[in-house]
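Journal club prep, shared notes

We agreed each person brings one worked example of a sequence with its structure written out as tokens. Mine is LysR family transcriptional regulator. I'm keeping it raw so we can talk through how to read the token line rather than staring at a rendered picture. Sequence first:
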Amino acid sequence: METLHMMRLFMRVADSDSLSAAARSCGLSPASVSRQINALEQELGVRLINRTSRRLALTEIGQLYRERGSAILSQLDELTDRVSQHQASPHGVIHVHSRVSVAEHFVIPVLPSFLSAYPDVRVNLWLTEESRDLVENNIDVAIRLGNLDEPQLAVRKIASGAPRILFASPAYLSARPPIRCPEDLRSHNCLSWPLDGRFEDGHAIWRFKDNDQTQEVRVRGTVQINNTNLLVHLALAGLGIVLLPIWTVAGHLSADRLQRILPDIDVTPTIFDHQIYAVFQRSSYTPRKIRAFIDHLVRANRSAMPAHCDWDQDTVLNDFK
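Then the structure, token by token:
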């Protein structure tokens, strides 16, 4: 069993290319991880990792050990889980990552029913406004809003989401020039989400699509915030125009506290993908607790179609067993 433990630790180090990252994901100190990797190398009688002051690199035999060892551990986990299924329901901790607003609308509402159905499962929900590496941060499932760019991960669509829209308060719109086309936004206070440190001077690029014609408009505003709820609060206060997914303000639109702008034109700050996805490690076998969690998210969100949303049937982009 000690050898299996050291094998798993080696896989963590190999996947993250960092002793420190592997240590954080396992709740160990870097010194402890280093000692256990040294012990594994001594047991095998080979060097698996070349260490320098700046980086780690697998040796040729280390690469082979990683490939064969990963397959062995995956098969062992699958065998263990399948045997345990005969006597036990899903159990253990699921580590989930999400943006605050996405969790608020697509995860939190379904947690009570999921935990009621699976009382032996616990959910550790980590909320940030930026994506996080699954391996380095020991994340089982990440909930993402469009813009998927990690082909090594398995993906399942949770919900169709809804389009992103422009909106502002009636008080703001009544006191400013009318907005009849995207170019009119240049003269308005457009409150935006800072993207990866770009446009920190208050500028943002908003993209519009009308009759298959796409254009970009450079807008500017007095505030940039990487938090959905705070942008909505500023819009309600009459400070300016905001661009967010429609489900973040569905209630305010229904109550006429906010008004939609240019409703016949598609708009986005990034790409025209409005889907909500669950992403997880691609593997020949996915633990039962993770399968149960994602299945529940899909079923619950499909049956709880929010107002203002055009909800599709769920689509599996990469099936898992």
